[in-house]
Design goal:
With 64 residues, chain A is mostly helical. Helices cover 72% and strands 0% of the residues of chain A. Chain A has a domain of 32 residues. Among the domains of chain B are: 185 residues, Cytochrome c oxidase-like, subunit I domain (Cytochrome C Oxidase, Chain A, Up-down Bundle), CATH 1.20.210; 168 residues, Orthogonal Bundle (Cytochrome Bc1 Complex, Chain D, domain 2). The longest helix of chain B has 39 residues. The chains are: A mainly alpha (64), B mainly alpha (731).
């Protein structure tokens, strides 16, 4: 194995291989993102807005 | 205190809700601790930066005190800003947002406080060891091996606390911020371990296991991704949490955030070699770095647009609210920096910008803009909530914002002009084909006014931070700190079973933290492995040169002093294959010349000229006088004086350990060389002392300056001669 790696040639192909790899990752993430349903996206997008405890808001709104 | 303990202390909920709702408390104490540390270290780190800025046009500002000379203080500034200011700021935001996004207290209070005190103790250790000259020389990884081990342990505690909190969460799906936090925790650990591998040669000295080209690739794979995964991904996580909260709007596109995350973490890791364009790094690695750097624009701008578009319908608030102002400024600076970064990675642009102040301008657009402004916005947002009171002065916060913007303009614009001036003047030829500015100092003198303007910018920025510190202090005094925040949420198990989610959908993935962690790990490992493993195992990447030999004992100690004084902060040792560089410095650098350089010392900035071929260029006496007082040989030089090198005796006691350590990393010192090295060292030192005497310089041969001269005179000379006798040859 070490001999095989040591004599590995065609380093130029690394660039093409790397770009193909990225294309695969990018395509997969696009497919995964666009398969999500709108209600889930809406809920998740608003998640940071859910965690303000009511107690804090009443005493501290608006903070600025 | 564990979450379960917090729950036990609470009164039991009504019977009808007992099965579904749990009462628990968020820990605000740890958030406040990190927030205070952020402000304190910010002031210290920026003050160190301002001191450096002053020294660049007024070298005597160091008072000839070794601990505050430019070379030793520079890593104090960079480490303080990256790991102390941004690090504490990052943890402040993560500890606040993670608890709320997971609807759970941190997994372990003990781990939280171990993390806080451990991290800040490491920063104190850095602030002590770096001015003392204990440094590896590798940028952003300067801390020596005992501190590096401590960093690993503390980071492990943080990661365990992060993952433990995620595991015990009450919110089924992980919000995008948490993905970025996970990627940060994993990748920083990998980068730190791989780049930090060294063989100890004493308590405060170690040698990188990599040499020359390989060391350079590993270092800039680390260095670039320290920017990516320490300064960018955690702050993107903070942006995705705090920007919607401040604007009271949901994130613009959750879909876009998914693509942003995966594309960003996959691409970023490949881009490191753009720091080594036109160096002795093999072309294939340079090309990979350049191509992936250009591709990086897409996910970076996806994230920036997602942030700015979150403010749709809320732009009227930006006018009034300093928090939003700072956030808009930060995200815009992120966009500017991430457009400029890929541009600088294009070889043509890089040939002009590299080693110049353009890089400094680029770095500070991101650091002052993206990291600085976002940190300030989170602090202004958090303090009123932690202390349950309104911000003491909104007006003062607004003033801080405009001062910060003005400061950035005063900082980066002069640096851009200085950078382009340097690049153009270095490469300018006369009509007759000679260098237009053969004296490097001619060019230094041209940029000094811009260094002065930069110091004005830095001063303004620090003034803004002081105003913020005062505002936050007054806010804290006016309010009452809420150490814990009691909340209720449905327990994870009691939540109604979600309808069957299709396996391998992103929704499903967001409910599987360990799988998501594993996939993120694979995404970041691929790039590093494809670049680094071939570089290390394929011999054709580093053609050997038979005349290149290990350093002699005296040169080795001289090199270690060169590292101790931080000379590589201002002088590169890498001549690029351009005519103007070969005319100015000599033959371009070759990969095979650095095979015994543990660590590599190629540098990244030329405040002074390149030193790769300095060996033999000047007599020993010139070097002595130049090190003692640079302006005596080079009028107008901004190099600090090093009078202590001529006074301090050379410590040869560590020599055997250092030779042994270098032998273990592959430098072919012959067996038993340790015992013969002192005699060889004395012989070479006596020769240099005799040369100095011939040049009317009286110097004792056992002083540190003799070793530094020996090292400088060796630089770049190996390829000029026939195969030279190796260190210890004749044995």
């Amino acid at each position: 194995m070490s001999q095989l790696i040591d004599k590995l040639g065609g380093l130029e192909a690394f660039g093409i291989f790397s770009l193909c790899l990225f294309a695969a990752v990018f395509t997969a993430s696009m497919i995964l993102a666009f398969c999500l349903k709108k209600p889930f996206l809406k809920n998740m997008g608003a998640l940071p807005l859910e965690d303000e405890p009511a107690k804090a808001e009443s005493k501290n709104s608006p903070p600025l | 205190m564990m979450n379960a303990e917090a729950t036990r202390q609470e009164p039991p909920p009504p019977p009808d809700r007992a099965a579904a709702v749990e009462t628990f408390r968020y820990d605000n104490r740890i958030v406040r601790a990190f927030a205070i540390a952020t402000v304190v270290w910010g002031v210290i780190g920026m003050t160190a930066g301002l001191t450096l800025a002053l020294q660049l046009f007024f070298p005597a500002a160091n008072l000839d005190w070794p601990m505050v000379t430019f070379g030793r203080l520079r890593p104090v500034h960079t480490n303080a800003m990256v790991f102390a200011f941004v690090g504490n700021g990052m943890f402040m935001g993560i500890y606040y947002s993670l608890q709320r996004l997971c609807k759970a207290r941190m997994f372990s209070d003990k781990l939280s406080w171990f993390h806080f005190w451990g991290w800040n103790a490491i920063i104190v250790a850095a602030a002590i060891t770096l001015p003392l000259g204990f440094t590896t020389s590798k940028e952003y990884a300067e801390l020596e091996w005992p501190v590096k081990i401590a960093i690993g342990v503390v980071w492990l505690a943080f990661t365990a606390n992060l993952l433990g909190t995620i595991v015990q969460r009450r919110e089924k799906h992980l919000y995008v911020s948490i993905w970025f936090y996970i990627a940060t925790a994993l990748t920083v650990a990998i980068l730190h371990i791989v780049n930090g591998l060294e063989v100890p040669a004493g308590l405060w000295k170690g040698y990188s296991i990599y040499a020359g080209v390989q060391d350079a690739l590993v270092q800039w794979w680390y260095g670039h991704n320290a920017v990516a995964f320490f300064l960018t991904t955690p702050y993107l996580g903070l942006m995705y949490y705090f920007l919607p909260k401040a604007a009271n709007r949901p994130v613009f596109s959750y879909r876009l955030s998914i693509i942003h995350f995966w594309a960003l973490i996959f691409i970023y890791i490949w881009a490191g070699p753009h720091h080594l364009l036109y160096t002795a790094l093999p072309d294939w690695a340079q090309s990979l770095g350049m191509v992936f750097s250009i591709m990086l624009v897409a996910p970076s701008w996806g994230g920036m647009l997602n942030g700015l578009l979150t403010l749709r319908g809320a732009w009227d608030k930006v006018q009034q609210d300093p928090v939003l102002k700072f956030m808009v400024g930060a995200v815009t600076a992120y966009g500017m920096a991430t457009l400029e970064g890929p541009a600088l990675a294009v070889k043509t642009v890089n040939s002009l910008s590299h080693y110049t102040d353009w890089t400094i301008a680029h770095v500070h657009t991101a650091a002052l803009g993206w990291n600085g402004l976002l940190t300030f916005s989170v602090l202004y947002w958090l303090f009123p909530r932690l202390y349950r009171v309104k911000l003491w002065s909104v007006k003062l916060a607004n003033i801080h914002f405009w001062i910060a913007l003005l400061a950035m303009a005063f900082y980066v614009v002069p640096m851009y002009i200085a950078g382009i001036t340097e690049g153009k003047m270095w490469s300018k030829f006369t009509a007759d084909g000679f260098l237009q500015y053969p004296n490097f100092l001619q060019i230094v003198q041209q940029v000094i006014p811009f260094y002065q303007l930069r110091a004005v910018g830095g001063s303004l920025y620090i003034l803004g931070v002081w105003l913020m510190a005062y505002n936050l202090w007054r806010t804290a005094r006016a309010g009452q700190f809420a150490p814990e925040e009691e909340v209720q949420a449905a327990s994870f198990r009691a939540q109604p079973a979600a309808r069957l989610e299709p396996a391998f959908s992103h929704r499903w993935l967001e409910s599987k933290p360990m799988l998501l962690t594993g996939l993120a790990l694979i995404a970041v490992l691929i790039g590093g492995m494809i670049e680094i493993i071939p570089m290390i195992v394929i011999k054709e990447n580093v053609p050997t040169i038979s005349s290149v030999q290990p350093y002699t004992a005296l040169e080795l100690l001289g090199r270690d002093i060169y590292i101790r004084e931080g000379c590589m902060g201002c002088h590169s040792q890498m001549i690029r294959p351009f005519r103007h560089e070969t005319e100015r410095y000599g033959e371009y650098s070759k990969a095979g010349e650095f095979v015994y350089d543990h660590p590599f010392l190629w540098g990244s900035k030329r405040i002074g000229p390149d030193l790769q071929r300095i060996g033999g260029k000047y007599p020993d006496a010139w070097h002595y006088n130049h090190l003692d007082d640079p302006r005596s040989t080079s009028p107008g030089s901004i190099m600090p004086r090093f009078p202590w090198l001529g006074a301090q005796p050379l410590d040869t006691a560590p020599l055997p350990a250092r030779i042994g350590a270098l032998r273990r990393v592959g430098v072919p010192y012959p067996p038993g060389y340790e015992s013969k090295a002192p005699a060889e060292l004395n012989q070479q030192a006596a020769k240099i002392a005799a040369n100095l005497a011939a040049g009317s310089v009286k110097a004792q041969p056992d002083r540190e300056i003799i070793a530094v001269i020996a090292y400088l005179q060796r630089l770049g000379t190996d390829i000029k001669s026939a195969p030279a006798p190796a260190a210890g040859a004749g044995n």
